[in-house]
Amino acid sequence: MRSIDATNAPDSRxxxxxxxxEGELKHLESILACFVEGSIEPxxxxxxxxxxxxxxxxSDYELVPSQSHRVxxxxxxxxxxxxxxxxxxxxxxxxxxQNRRVAA
Length: 104
Prior knowledge:
Elements: E1 16-17, H1 18-37, H2 47-60, E2 61-62, H3 65-103
Parallel strand pairs: 1-2
């Protein structure tokens, strides 16, 4: 019996071709644009979900360099959006606590 060398073993999970990633990239870019425009409420789907979807592109597809740059750009924009949402949420919480103190 011949042993299988790990370097010669077939990859059990083939990455998809870059051409198939294009539709996903366009979809994610349009969703992020809607979040930025404000036409989608940020609470509808958390940014962590969209960040996971973007990360899947990198792991599931054999991206060309321009697509990799777009993925990185999406990740940066999502991080900025998440930070802005967290800041806005913290400010709203502080305002609510202040309103309760005034009302008491």
